[in-house]
Amino acid sequence: MALGTNLGMNLGIEGKWALVCAASKGLGKGCAQALVGAGVNVVITARGAEALEATAAELRALGLAEVRTVAGDITTAAGRAAALAACPQVDILVNNAGGPPPGDFRTWDREVWVKAIDANMLTPIELIKSTVDAMAARGYGRVVNITSAAVKAPIDVLGLSNGARSGLTGFVAGLARSNIAGKGVTVNGLLPGAFDTDRLRTTVQAFAEKSGQDIEKVIHDRQRNIPAQRFGTAAEFGAVCAFICSVHAGYLTGQNILLDGGAYPGTF
User: Fold this and answer.
1) What are the tens digits of pLDDT across the range 38-69?
2) pTM assigned to the model
3) What number of CA atoms fall less than 13 Å from residue 181's CA on the CB side?
């Protein structure tokens, strides 16, 4: 039984094809799981072949859709070409890439900036460019860009991420409202706050070691500052992604949806 049915709603995307980037772990994996649960065939990518194949085995065990893997670096032209070649057609594109490291902008040279922009702005744009016109010609398409809550509320030490992801967000704001909007194609952003992923655990561990604090205390303090009093899960993130990709979300485009347990304090 598809996930959409389990939720009391048929998402209407069974049999479609999705390309999900950085899907071996974390939020990308959560999105792939939710899409497969809705009966969507997926091509999943990641640089680590071992973790990618382990995730693919989990998804295939659901017995709901076809799962293909492409191990490689999606930020390279060759990596993108291989991923696209594995997908018969891209009805759903989930752009995702690991965020650039934190730091002080005074230490970043041009090469560091270009690497961040290439991974978190230009790579998604290249994938959109390769798929969006065919989506429009078929009359259906969903592009979901996984960015960051920092797009909405910038974090000073994440300047590389703030800059690159905000650039993508600005580009998408125009694209989503172009002529593709009348051809069944939507483009939206998903902005995660603190989610229980390997990346978050690594960050928390590093902070605990640097500050000399117990890691459990660091986790407790971070969760206490979130109104939901917890970190998000990849499964609930994926469920929102799957809904945005569904037939029910055709009137939702050009939006940036913040999933942060209420941490952002603003009205808008």
Assistant:
1) 999 999 999 999 999 999 999 999 999 999 99
2) 0.93
3) 15
